Amino acid sequence: MNLQVENISIEIGKKQIVDDISLRVNSQQFVGILGPNGCGKSTLLKSIYKVLSPNKGYVKLGEMDVLKEKSKKIAKHLGVVGQFNEISFDFTVEQMVMMGRTPHKKLLDSEAKKDHEMVEQALKTVNLLAYKNRSFLTLSGGEKQRVILARVLAQEPKFLILDEPTNHLDVKYQIEIIKMVKQINIGTLAALHDLTLAGSYCDYLYLLKNGSVVTYGKPEEVLTKENIEFVFDVKCEIYQNPVTGHIGIAYL
Ligand SMILES: Nc1ncnc2c1ncn2[C@@H]1O[C@H](COP(=O)(O)OP(=O)(O)OP(=O)(O)O)[C@@H](O)[C@H]1O
């Protein structure tokens, strides 16, 4: 499924947080949003997954007008991994992942064989099957993040929104999660902080500053020393990593 975001502006308490942003993610593309803390990445993503109403603009997911469509219909197609995954009541890992099946069920539907199979498969993928009866609240930050990803996998989405999906994860799981998401091979829009990771795995990047898009394009077009200094206020040199062949960044 593809995503089209047109002229989104979001004002919160008279402050312009997102200023006329348009972007596109084609189906099967992995697109990254980069920018400093507070530049509006999460706020923009929230407006796409309907937690926040923009003041202006529209969002199309496939043929659906996201801002007008019912949340349940959107949830059948759109999976979201947010930045904070805290919950107040405790659930087991299995119950948390089963919640991903909710958009596919009718009112009072019980859990069918297929739901259990999907949950098991998703837990296997994130390497947490052995944790299925553990209490979610007792997990580490990285384990929680993987459970949330399993919940999204069980949801069988056609498009993914990820807000710093590698938060809390050690280097092994950072890479695994990104690879896993790429393997699902559906349109994905992800806010990321790690520029090297973004440069290695994203097909396309949008670079934000103060709520606006500064530039966009392929990683090698966006991750230049001039753009990085302008947006993040740090000096660096860009090189080709001799081992991976991807973009390397040496901060000065
Ligand atoms: N509900 C709110 N009320 C007031 N200000 C808000 C609200 N939500 C976001 N903001 C402000 O909007 C700006 C953008 O926040 P946002 O969370 O979108 O940034 P971000 O780019 O995702 O940052 P980070 O990289 O730190 O996660 C910040 O200055 C934040 O304080």
Automatic annotation (TrEMBL):
Looking up SUPFAM superfamilies in the UniProt record yields: P-loop containing nucleoside triphosphate hydrolases
Gene3D superfamilies attached to this UniProt entry: P-loop containing nucleotide triphosphate hydrolases
User: Domain ABC transporter: where?
Assistant: 3-235
User: Which InterPro entries would you find in this protein's record?
Assistant: AAA+_ATPase, ABC_transporter-like_ATP-bd, ABC_transporter-like_CS, P-loop_NTPase
Q: In which domain of life is the source organism classified? A: Bacteria
Q: Coiled coil: which residue ranges? A: none
Keywords, in A-Z order: ATP-binding, Nucleotide-binding
Q: Which GO terms describe its molecular function?
A: ATP binding
SMART domains from the entry?
AAA
Protein name in UniProt: ABC transporter ATP-binding protein
Name the lineage: Bacteria, Bacillati, Bacillota, Bacilli, Bacillales
